Amino acid sequence: MATGGSGxxxxxCMLTGFGGYHKLKVVDAPKPGSPxxxxxLIKVVASGINxxxxxxxxxxxxxxxxxxxxxxxxxxxxxxxxxxxxKGVETLQVGDRVFCINMFELWKEYVVIPASRAFxxxxxxxxxxxxxxxxxxxxxxxxxxxxxxxxxxxxVLCHMAAGGVGFAVTQLCKTVENVTVFGTSSEHKHKxxxxxxxxxxxxxxxxxxxxxxxxxxxxxxxxxxxPLCGADTKKCYDLLKPMGKLIIFGAANGMTGEHKSFTNLxxxxxxxxxxxxxxxxxxxxxxxxxxxxxxxxxxxxxxxITDAAADLVRMYKEGLIKPHVDSVWSFEKAGDAMKYxxxxxxxxxxxxxxxxxxxxxxxxxxxxxKKDEGNxxxxxx
Length: 381
Prior knowledge:
- The chain is α/β, with parallel strands linked by helices and 381 residues long.
- It is built from 11 helices and 19 strands.
- The protein has helices at 51-57, 127-130, 134-147, 164-173, 190-196, 209-216, 231-238, 262-270, 277-283, 299-317, 334-342; strands spanning 3-15, 24-34, 39-48, 62-63, 66-67, 72-73, 77-85, 97-101, 110-114, 118-120, 155-158, 180-184, 200-202, 221-226, 240-248, 285-289, 325-330, 349-353, 362-363.
- Helix 4 links the parallel strand 11 and strand 12 (180-184).
- Helix 3 packs across helix 4 and helix 3 (134-147) crosses helix 10 (299-317).
- The radius of gyration is 20 Å and the shape is globular.
């Protein structure tokens, strides 16, 4: 545990209550004191936004430790520089550039976290790229390689392929020989997701993705990653080949707009399929659920995350993966950045930065610029 306060003041982006985008405010707060045993103090430069934060703002997110209750600080991933290390820390030193993951509390200028949750950035990686790694790439990695056991000559359906997880999934699929990727997104994002490696882009707003997949692969696919839930989960399960795996990791169908919709939540809940073990057995199919926020607290889970992060760093160094940053926003514009995501404008990752002080977002290479028309579903983690 960190020791006392430093007597200095920092900024943090606080969720002041459940509700709209205006509930996010940058406020003054005490800067943390020295890190305790096994901890590090990090000066944060950038943080990613995930749909976990959007769900939390609406009062729809429950962490492993309980429901997120305002006033509180969100933020599950960040990048920055180590300012101080606690006793017993041997993996990091002062001055290291790191990315880190935590169950919220990272939308601050300074954070104290366990050293085991911070990883040294490779040379050449920007702080914005580093802030895009922890949630999206760890989620994609653990789903594909641990749950999915992805091997050569397999096929994967990735919903919302233009989002942060979607970009990570596609890139990781392409590290395995002859993996075919089907990706759903709105049509104007197809060029971007194809450039990222999607073999067969599908505009699910105008076409039935089940029919489109079966036109190319009549027997279906080997792995489906489902961030939608509800009625789509049954469609995804039916798309599996024998020995196929459905991995559910979100509930985008239960979320719409700025405020929580009980109608949407109820509709999603009632349309969920029931999986019967005996029919699954005769179908030779499997269903798994994944939630990165609940994968912590024991040595085995921590080791799994550490090993995955090390492998992702290796892949970055070898040029196999590269986070696709859509835009960078100041923390003062966190609410606007959330709206930008909810309005389906982003292609890739949306990042917040303490170093950005102007009032507009900064577009990165290939950032989304055109707002979708119609009812495209938002993403999750």
